[in-house]
Amino acid sequence: MPELPEVETLCRQLRTKIIGLEITGTFILDGKIEMPGNLKGQRVISVNRRGKRIVIGMDNGKSLEIHLRMTGRLIWQETRAVPPPHSRFVFDLSSNQVMLVDPRRFATLSLREEAIKQDEVVDALAPGCAEFLIAEGRNRRRPLKSFLMDQQIIEGIGNIYACEILHRVGLSPWRETASLSPDDWREMEKAMGTVLSKAIDCRGTSISDWRDLFGNKGDYQNELRVYSREGVTCLRCGGIIHRKRLLGRGTWFCPGCQA
Ligand SMILES: [Zn+2]
Predict the structure, then answer these.
(1) What is the H or E stretch that residue 109 is in?
(2) Which domains does the chain have, with CATH numbers?
(3) Is the dihedral of CA 165, 169, 174, 175 positive or negative?
């Protein structure tokens, strides 16, 4: 599932290609996806990430939001091409195309007319997000990992990066959020920044089907220290990486250095 680094990678790549281009045609290939209004004739003026969503600003003041969810991928084509299997929409931008390929069909499109309130949730890469998490986590008795993955509180982190961040910071995925000190949260903010920034530099993690806008694999799967490494020696303490389920999700951790 695309998480913050993968979506940020797409936003950066889209920015180099589509800003200034006019949307000259929109084609829906899957009746399950709804085209929110008529986008034809709009010029793209910005591409931003909001959590795991891609927000494309247009010159009529509205924004198109693309949420890739489970298996969505965007593909850039310099010339008109036959859409690959599982394509759900095609946007023509002058002579170029952007396609959504999405085998499990959960990706969504929506149109925003108004500015988004910025203070409801915090982005995992927002400077100073530790202070927000201290306030949100103080009274909650829930496992730290599920808190980090709750998109209603903090946006951008899914299963892979939650495991990696918790291993880096040395905290157990099962720790209750209320048991963390303010300094623990500040260390967490640092670990989030380190892991997510490096993953962006690597253009994401291609363990299964993730590809960037140009069809290339990311490289962060070579940097993983704990995710999918069950039975392997821990690079921090020499212990053994374990895998257990936490609220239905596979969770990799080191009992030796995560408490
Ligand atoms: Zn360890």
Answers:
(1) strand 108-112
(2) 4-112 (3.20.190.10), 122-253 (1.10.8.50)
(3) negative
Ligand 1 centroid, distance to 153 Cα (angstroms)? 28
Structure tokens at 249: 């999700």
| Residues belonging to the active site | 2-3, 52, 249
The rounded average pLDDT for each run of 10 residues, N- to C-terminus, in the chain (259 residues) is: 95 96 95 89 95 94 94 94 94 96 95 67 92 93 96 95 98 97 97 98 93 96 97 97 96 98
Look-up: residue for tokens 């247009």?
58
Give, in degrees to the nearest 5, the angle at Cα 163 between 162 and 169. Answer: 85
CA 237 – ligand 1 centroid, Å: 4
Q: Name the residue among 73, 258, 55 with its Cα closest to residue 166.
A: 258
Strands (E), 142-248: 154-155, 242-246
Q: Residue 178: what residue type? A: A
Give 173 Cα–ligand 1 centroid separation in angstroms: 13
In the reported structure, the alpha carbon of residue 96 is separated from the centroid of ligand 1 by a whole-number distance in angstroms of 48
CA of 107 to the centre of ligand 1 (A): 37
Structure token digits, residue 195: 């892991």
Residue 121 has a pLDDT of 83
Q: Using CA of residue 152, residue 157, residue 158, residue 162, what is the dihedral sign?
A: negative
